[in-house]
């Protein structure tokens, strides 16, 4: 369905932009949290991988296993750890997380300025015309476009997380409303209770749909594979020990 832009007014547009900027801000917040989580998890993963690499190299240098297969496995695994660290360090998870954090703060500042436009327009004390509001609005939007150009975009996973959390919040509000309606033993309360149940069930169905559509990112898959490597290396070393016996 095509949107009709013929009857747009500046007050309605400012109010609409406040909502859209707020959505973008929360997406950036969730992206910042996700990148920060990656950074912390990779620190722990590389800590374990380096310990295993040291064990591999130590056993190889001390001659505990004289086989060519063990020495080759030790060398390949050490090279893998070095290359993996080089690749992950290039992704700059911690730096990108911090940049997203400051990015959402810049967007919050623009939201507050847009809200201030409405406050000045609705105020009886200060004379603030629509033309003035439009000029200030255009200035804020130009700054917003500049901020977007200088920062990377969020992943669809971050937007799906926001939708899921919003659905849960609405469902909780529906439960609170339902409990209040149960306490009011009158006809209006019962009618309201029915409506809240309908909204709650609708919210649950939307929430389940958003959860079902959430997909892991390539970063999650790479992290999962390296967790598997951590678990496999002790098994490989144990197999070499059993063969030596």
TrEMBL record:
Domain (SMODS and SLOG-associating 2TM effector) ranges: 15-167
Signal peptide: none
Record key words, sorted: Membrane, Transmembrane, Transmembrane helix
TM region positions: 44-62, 68-88, 224-242
Basic and acidic residues compositional bias, start-end: 170-183
Parts forming coiled coils: none
Keyword Ligase: no
Biased composition regions of type Polar residues, renumbered to the chain: 184-198
Sequence segments annotated as region (Disordered): 166-212
Any Pfam family the entry gives: SLATT_5
Name recorded for this polypeptide: SLATT domain-containing protein
